[in-house]
Amino acid sequence: QVQLVESGGGLVQPGGSLRLSCAASSLTFGSYIMAWFRQAPGKEREFVGCGWRSGTTYYANFVEGRFTISRDNVKNTVSLQMNTLRPDDTAVYYCAAGTVHGKYDYWGQGTQVTVSS
To answer: Is the predicted pLDDT of residue 102 greater than 90, yes or no?
Structure first.
């Protein structure tokens, strides 16, 4: 059974940094695009970014160079380094895996990120 388990969420002040991690199991990790999504209260879930096995990454416009996705294809993990965080980055962040960009088959349970002073 495929499992994606996120960790690293928490409370951070505006302008601060946070690093989220996602550990995948029972998955041919290298065959999957690994993505991050987020959902803020009262809003729809939105795409944050994704990374291919090759190291290529792609981000939503709102990231504006503040976030970085990296994969460890040996440890089967993907991380989301978030810098210069803003209050509107507050959301539950989800890790997802899919073989086609835009169609994700597996999802983690989410981790809460709160940006507040």
So the answer is: no
